[in-house]
Amino acid sequence: MQSLETTTTSTVELKIDLTDEQFWLLCQNNRDYQFECTASGELQIMPPTGGETGNSNIEIAYQIQGWSRQNNLGKAFDSSTGFKLPNGAKRSPDASWVKIERWNALTPEEREKFPPICPDLVLELRSRTDSLTELQGKMQEYIQNGAALGWLIDRKNKRVEIYRPHQDVEILENPSSLSGEDVLPGFILDLTQIL
Fold it and tell me: What does 73-86 look like in DSSP terms, one character per residue?
């Protein structure tokens, strides 16, 4: 049985059983929508971002891609890329990055669809309508599924939450930049145009 409910973030959830192939086809046949699927199989339909969030997203993706192209240590991805996490969830972080050796270990077919891998770096950018609690849960899910570094950028409160495996969440108030640490060595994300 299918049921439709709206969450506090304007995200619509549809409870329906879909195979990986059916989910892929749903996304391909409805490109104007962004879908995610929880580990328990709930289909989430995400609303488009507003102008400020969209501009911040492209700035973040531009910076990560620029750094990635200079050193060829991995592959950068934008918010339209879906990943199948080890727990079965299908997620699309606002920006992400995967080490080249992990990316190259995937088959061409795996790379073409929703790669069955959790990115090494995941970034979520909170828009004004996003539930902070839901995004924090998503960040924990990424870390539990293999992400080495996660950034939750909360523009509304001008702060960043940094997620790392086996560590407490670090909170930075109004930072001007973020370090890629040893995950993205030498990378500094300039936040002056984002926060």
Answer: SEEEE-TT--EE-T
CA distances from residue 194 to 32, 61, 138, 150, 175 in whole angstroms, order as listed: 25, 12, 21, 17, 10
Query: How many alpha carbons lie under 13 Å from residue 46 in its C-beta half-sphere?
Result: 25
Report yes or no: 45 and 27 within 8 Å, Cβ to Cβ.
Answer: no
Q: Which fold has domain 49-190?
A: tt1808, chain A (3.90.1570)
Q: Is the pLDDT of residue 2 over 80?
A: no
pTM: 0.87
Lowest mean pLDDT among 24-28, 46-50, 52-56, 132-136: 46-50
For residue 27, how far is the Cα from the chain centroid? 16
pLDDT in tens, 109-159: 999 999 999 999 999 999 888 899 999 999 999 999 999 999 999 999 999
All structural domains of the chain with their residue ranges: 49-190
Beta carbons of 195 and 55 less than 8 angstroms apart: no
Selection from 29-33, 51-55, 70-74 with the highest mean pLDDT: 70-74
CA distance 59 to 39: 30
Name every residue whose Cβ is closer than 8 Å to that of residue 108 and which is 6 or more positions away in sequence. Answer: none
Distance CA 186, CA 180 (A): 7
